[in-house]
Write a structure and sequence with these properties.
The protein is α+β, with helices and mostly antiparallel strands. It is built from eight helices and five strands, in the order ααβααβααβαββα.
């Protein structure tokens, strides 16, 4: 499969969360999804256990039901004080960006079920530890990001979303997940409308960088 002409740095700095520019009508070949997941399986896994599983949902009915759970979760989120569009309202530099993010979240909230492919990376874990959960989730989240990078390189758009986990039990039942299989993120995947994504505005490095002590 041909990939975009991106350097490693360009790939890493232009893989954006895509919501409004997902092409909801263009089919995505399953061979392309398999290729992206094959690359994702090269990500690190604690003790090399590789206890990951990948759910790829293309069935229209199941996508619609997941989309409805996601819509409900987004509606509640948008009313909360932590919603993206409400943050940094007093900062003239950040407020417009946050409002655009909030608008795009609302857009995807109404259309998640229409995205042609939904991908849910999962992890086998009988129990969730009370302490070091970073060690557990570190065995699946890097792979999820690798999937998104591979998708970007192939002209696909993705979004990192977790609000569906407000209905984790319902989605697990819908998809027939065993009790010990935990969902991580929900990654809507479609061809992107255009591939000219740029670097995002971020806080200056020196505001967040610490050497040896805080």
């Amino acid at each position: 499969m041909n990939t975009l002409d991106l350097s490693p740095d360009e790939l890493l700095t232009t893989t954006r969360t895509v919501r409004k520019r997902l092409d909801l009508d263009k089919p995505v070949p399953m061979a392309l999804i398999r290729e992206c997941i094959e690359i994702a399986l090269q990500a690190p896994s604690g003790s090399n256990r590789q206890t990951w599983h990948w759910l790829v949902i293309t069935d229209a009915g199941k996508r619609a039901q997941i989309g409805e759970y996601y819509r409900r979760a987004v509606a509640a989120y948008l009313e909360s004080s932590g919603a993206a569009g409400r943050l940094y309202a007093d900062d003239p530099n950040r407020a417009p960006v946050q409002q655009r993010v909030g608008s795009s979240v609302a857009y995807l909230g109404e259309r998640m079920g229409q995205v042609p492919v939904l991908v849910i990376p999962c992890l086998t874990a009988k129990n969730l530890p009370a302490g070091n959960q970073a060690g557990l989730w570190g065995s699946i989240l890097p792979a999820a990001w690798s999937y998104m990078l591979a998708a970007r390189a192939r002209g696909l758009g993705t979004a990192w979303t977790t609000l569906h986990l407000n209905y984790e039990a319902e989605v697990s039942e819908l998809l027939g997940l065993p009790e010990e299989v935990r969902q991580s993120v929900l990654i809507p995947t479609a061809y992107s409308i255009g591939t000219d994504f740029k670097r995002a505005a971020r806080r200056p490095l020196d505001e967040v960088l610490h050497f040896d002590t805080w």
